[in-house]
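User: Quick sanity check before I run a bigger batch. Here is a single chain. Can you write out its predicted 3D structure?
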Amino acid sequence: MKQRFTRGRLWVDPPFQFRLLARLGCYFLLYIFVVIQVGFAFQVMADIAANGVRDGVAGLYLEYLSKQRVLLITLVVTAPIVIYSMLRFSHRVAGPLYRCRQVMEEMAGLIREWNDKVWAETNAEFREKEEHVQEISH
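Assistant: Done. Predicted structure follows.
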């Protein structure tokens, strides 16, 4: 299916897109943190089972991170690609919402114009009736 609207810019609605990117980024960082912690817990259990308690937790953690160095470097290298992909995704969400908001604001403006016109006409008719009643009463 052909797209009806051409996508020319990535930042359509910056406040909304930034909040969405921040939320997605936080979820991604939380996921990475949990994966590292669970991996560390399994590594510690395996290390204690094999060698007993030999280093403190800090030493074990640094050793685990050094073993995961390639994974962490890959994470840092691919982060810009992931961020760009999330920005494109936020654009696909924000674009239609932005257009919908514009249409609704336009409709609200037309309704306000119509409402002002109706009230002005009603007010003018009421003044005419009021003047007519005053003429009759005098």
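The chain has a mean pLDDT of 84.

User: Great, the batch can go ahead then.
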